[in-house]
Amino acid sequence: MLDRIIRAQRAIGEACEKLGRQITIMEVCGTHTVSIFRSGIRSMLPERLKLLSGPGCPVCVTDQGYIDAVLDLADRDDCIIATYGDMIRVPGHRGSLETRASGGDVKIVLSSEDALQLARDNPGKTIVFIAVGFETTAPATAVVVKEAARENVENFCVLSGHKLVIPAMRALLSGMNDRIDAFLCPGHVSVIIGSGAFKEIADSFHRPCVVAGFEPVQIMEGLAEISRQLAAGRAEVKSIYHAVVTQAGNTAAQKIIAECFEPVDGYWRGLGKIAKSTLALREQYSRLDAFRRFGLEDVPGKDDSGCRCGEVLCGLIDPIQCPLFGTRCTTERPVGPCMVSSEGTCAAWFKYRRRKKSDQ
Amino acid sequence: MCLAIPARIIELEGDRAVVDAMGNRWKAKTTLLPEAKLGKVVLVHAGFAIALVDEEEARKTWELFAEIDNFEKTPNKVSG
Amino acid sequence: MPKLANETLAELGDSAFLRLASSDICFTTDSYVVKPLFFRGGDIGKLAVCGTVNDLAVAGSRPLALSLSLIIEEGFEFELLERILESISDAARSNEVTVVTGDTKTVEHGSADGIFINTAGIGIRLPNTDPGLDKIEVGDQIIINGSIGDHGITILSQRKAIGFESPLESDCAGLASLTCILYESVSGIRFMRDPTRGGLAATLNEIAEGSGKGVEIAEKAIPVKPAVQAAADMLGFDVLNIANEGKFVAVVSPGTAGQCLRICREHPLGKDASVIGEVVATRDVPLVELRTRTGGRRVVQMPYGRDLPRIC
């Protein structure tokens, strides 16, 4: 594998030389951000290649309004919150889910099926499943929505915060950050939606879109392919994640998403309102929709902490440019979700940066 | 956030599967992958199999998977 | 609480006199609150003995005696208590230490997660042995006696909420039989510590900070079992941060590294021993840096807080 990495590194270097200018590549997915930092890839790239992290961290892009709604539900005596691990530390206006976890009101689950099982095991309470994630995770929610409907599980509902990647990429290029030259596209979202889904970005905006997995070899070879395309003036969709990604994607998963959800306008932290970017449960599943059940609205929340996560998520600033980074906002005492989430950009920079004496 | 790893289906009843990844056995559902079969390697995410994995490609993609033949002969040998 | 028939506890007095050959005594204490109480490769009792034995062993002493303090929840199953006490007896015997004094308290149901254990231990300093962070020098080699992450992953696999089946076992073991040979045979051992909570990452950071020098390690030299790596990948954990209960990290002079490695590999608790890195001069702040498998470099941070399983 090492020889492939060296070859990719050489190819990247050559292409960058040929281009003769700075190139900016956005890796959309938080899992790519972590893998890049953990494998030390940043230290192997030429100075001219700037890597930006994008809005691909589901917890990070979840709007403050949604977070506060979750905390309100957690405060209710008749509810148990079922959530994937990462949400638990995100700070709302009055603490986080973690500060309530010890009361038994909040349970961490590894699978949507576990959340549904909680409902079966706790008939006296209403289980609210905090369904956050992109297209990779939405099908798992859809499966249990259908199961719950079929079995008539009365005390189960879903607060859908599922978001779609392509509308966000479109929004970024349409105004928020047009300095992005190319995208390293999320490998597992592509398993579901298919690599072909990125064609509209490549064609409409003339940006190379390369789908890669999360292993270091995949990332390096993905960056090499992008560099080669940029040097040649091409802008194509290409997947190198042959092990699991196809052009069409997982059609069974796409079908079940379409059955249960419809894309609606939604609020993203930092990116604001993006058309048809969030999945809402369809009318026929309204009984399982926590928004409808509890009369909640998906409205943007106010964030007056000075946190600049929004700009980090658009790739407009690096975490170190946020005045709170490393001082008021650290991994131990996070202010914004980009520092809380294990895939957050700020957390990655904080954990893997070379600390200096001048930091103190 | 897309943590998913390749694992082989070693039990399958309806859409309830048990998958094996380097000796660890996890429960997974194959509801999203009707083409899943016993013995096949699948990509598992949040308790669901979401893709069939081409084994030849898998060896080129995941370093850990590339060691799978050696692993099956000497399961407790440490790598490093 | 019903009268305990077990010999160990029945004989223990509130205090004990010990006649010691030396007045250079090593003294340590630790509390054990592991969940689940029983796991593949051990239980809270074995852990309570081995953990304290190891703190004495890495410090350069020969462990001698332990105190045993139990805090038990009302209604705790008698049979389970017996099993734990038997584990403690067995572990004490195989580690050649004696439990000389003890105490038991009962608390209300719900206050102690079943049982909490505290052990304090004493050991006698080995001759001419005085390890310390201040002894560490640039160029020193860093050795670990075997694979990392076994204990932490085993524990996770047996927690209901995460629950997966695994062939892995905790590496829970007392290390004195190996550390004593090392300290007695080799004069160049600067420092040793056992990487328990926080894993290898925590111990290496403590070494860097405590010595004021940098640490560089090579990812491909770190022994990891494939099942541990696969489980860590599934759960999103870094193996460097995962707890170990039968491992030590030793910082040794470059001239003695080969000998140390040989001694470890000839011992059952050190078959997979490896030189994982070295101590380097620090440019600014003492950091732990990892040379990754891909040839890149990145910093290894002191792990913080709770590791939460993440997926999405």
List the SSEs and their pairings.
The complex is a heterotrimer of chains A (360), B (80) and C (312).
Chain A: H1 2-19, E1 23-29, H2 30-38, E2 49-56, H3 58-61, H4 64-74, E3 79-83, H5 98-101, E4 106-108, H6 112-121, E5 126-133, H7 138-151, E6 156-162, H8 165-176, E7 182-186, H9 187-193, H10 199-205, E8 209-212, H11 216-231, E9 237-239, H12 251-260, E10 261-268, E11 272-281, H13 290-293, H14 309-313, H15 337-340, H16 345-352
Parallel strand pairs in A: 1-2, 1-7, 3-4, 3-5, 5-6, 7-8, 8-9
Antiparallel strand pairs in A: 10-11
Chain B: E1 5-13, E2 16-21, E3 24-29, E4 41-45, E5 48-52, H1 55-61, H2 63-66, H3 68-73
Chain C: H1 7-11, E1 25-32, E2 38-39, E3 42-43, H2 44-58, E4 61-73, H3 78-94, E5 98-107, E6 115-125, E7 141-144, H4 150-157, H5 176-185, E8 189-193, H6 199-211, E9 214-218, H7 226-235, E10 249-252, H8 257-265, E11 274-280, E12 288-291, E13 297-299
Parallel strand pairs in C: 4-5, 9-12
Antiparallel strand pairs in C: 1-6, 2-3, 4-6, 7-10, 7-11, 8-10, 9-11, 12-13
Helix pairs in contact in C: 2-3
Could you name the key traits of this structure?
heterotrimer, A: 360 residues, alpha/beta, five-stranded parallel beta sheet, four-stranded parallel beta sheet, 16 helices, 40% helix, globular, B: 80 residues, alpha+beta, five-stranded antiparallel beta sheet, 21% helix
